[in-house]
């Protein structure tokens, strides 16, 4: 092993500087957590059962802590990959600001606390779903799929699709068809969202040896799959309206957002496959974040409009 490799290995296995509070916050993947918290909160908010605001707040905090715990364990396990990628090499573990054992212990404690908090504050169904989401993200996605198959995002995306179902269960104590539709919405959104990122970060994944679809199957097949998934999203996004759970305020917004997502996927499809042509992929990635946030925000807006009109 070269001196440089030894230095890198030593740095990611031991902390070279005292950890700050900010470093532990970064372990929680706050950007990912923000979307998880939002979709989980919407799940609570649109459930057909009144829940006390304090109980809602605690449920959302439990979802946030569970998400952050899974993120911390993910960073602990993937610290070697993160050190090789420009996008992640300055994270607390590869940068040597947090020791691996500290990150793992932090993630495990938060996992246990978040599930117990959900069980005590809401019900066992929501707590079981939160535990399942954490375990799925850590064992199925991070440990089993991430380094082995280009389907890592397709299957692993289920972990990120749990929060609205957890939120719904926190309010109702069960899982309904609407909650399952919200699960499928996030599940189908995840692959084109991450593949857009992987297209313009392809060299990073190639360097780290992560078998993302653009690395294994190439840009052309990835773009084809992205178009397919955005087309599949359209009918799924319309399910809450077609089931009568919400009205056409949501339905109209969902239709417009889905058509925009499809248009971005087609724009990516039409670009050349060389590394300099991925401006549309970057724009699609950014649009995908707006898409999901706006889609979920439209659900309570529709219900509020319905109450006012009724």
TrEMBL record:
Cell location: Cell membrane
Q: Where are the transmembrane segments?
A: 32-51, 57-77, 98-119, 125-145, 152-171, 177-200, 226-243, 249-269, 289-309
Q: What is its main location?
A: membrane
Reaction catalyzed: heme b + (2E,6E)-farnesyl diphosphate + H2O = Fe(II)-heme o + diphosphate
- EC number assigned by the record: 2.5.1.141
Which pathway does UniProt place it in?
Porphyrin-containing compound metabolism; heme O biosynthesis; heme O from protoheme: step 1/1
What GO terms are given for molecular function?
protoheme IX farnesyltransferase activity
What PROSITE patterns does this protein map onto? UBIA
Q: Tell me the keywords, alphabetical order.
A: Cell membrane, Heme biosynthesis, Membrane, Transferase, Transmembrane, Transmembrane helix
Q: Which HAMAP family match?
A: CyoE_CtaB
Xref: PANTHER family: 4-HYDROXYBENZOATE SOLANESYLTRANSFERASE, PROTOHEME IX FARNESYLTRANSFERASE, MITOCHONDRIAL
- Give the miscellaneous note: Carbon 2 of the heme B porphyrin ring is defined according to the Fischer nomenclature.
What is the protein's name according to its record?
Protoheme IX farnesyltransferase
| Source lineage | Bacteria, Pseudomonadati, Pseudomonadota, Alphaproteobacteria, Hyphomicrobiales
Name of the encoding gene: ctaB
């Amino acid at each position: 092993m070269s001196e440089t490799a030894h230095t890198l290995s030593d740095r990611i296995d031991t902390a070279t500087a005292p950890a700050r509070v900010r470093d532990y916050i970064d372990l929680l993947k706050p950007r990912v957590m923000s979307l998880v918290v939002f979709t989980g909160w919407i799940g609570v908010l649109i459930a057909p059962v009144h829940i006390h605001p304090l109980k809602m707040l605690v449920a959302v905090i439990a979802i946030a802590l569970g998400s952050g715990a899974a993120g911390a364990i993910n960073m602990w396990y993937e610290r070697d990959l993160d050190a090789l990628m420009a996008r992640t090499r300055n994270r607390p573990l590869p940068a040597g600001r947090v020791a691996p054992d500290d990150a793992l212990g932090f993630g495990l404690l938060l996992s246990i606390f978040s599930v117990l908090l959900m069980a005590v504050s809401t019900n066992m169904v929501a707590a079981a779903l939160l535990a399942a989401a954490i375990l799925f993200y850590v064992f199925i996605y991070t440990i089993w799929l991430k380094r082995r198959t280009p389907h890592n995002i397709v299957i692993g995306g289920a972990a990120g699709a749990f929060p609205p179902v957890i939120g719904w269960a926190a309010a109702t104590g069960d899982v309904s068809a609407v909650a399952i539709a919200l699960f499928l919405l996030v599940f189908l959104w995840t692959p084109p969202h991450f593949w857009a990122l992987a297209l313009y970060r392809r060299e990073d994944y190639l360097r780290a040896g992560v078998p993302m679809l653009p690395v294994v199957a190439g840009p052309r097949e990835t773009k084809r799959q992205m178009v397919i998934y955005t087309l599949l999203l359209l009918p799924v996004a319309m399910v809450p309206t077609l089931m009568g759970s919400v009205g056409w305020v949501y339905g109209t917004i969902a239709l417009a957002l889905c058509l925009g997502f499809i248009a971005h996927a087609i724009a990516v499809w039409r670009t050349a496959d060389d590394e300099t042509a991925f401006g549309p992929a970057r724009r699609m990635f950014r649009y995908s974040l707006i898409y999901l946030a706006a889609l979920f925000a439209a659900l309570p807006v529709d219900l509020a409009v319905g109450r006012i009109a009724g």
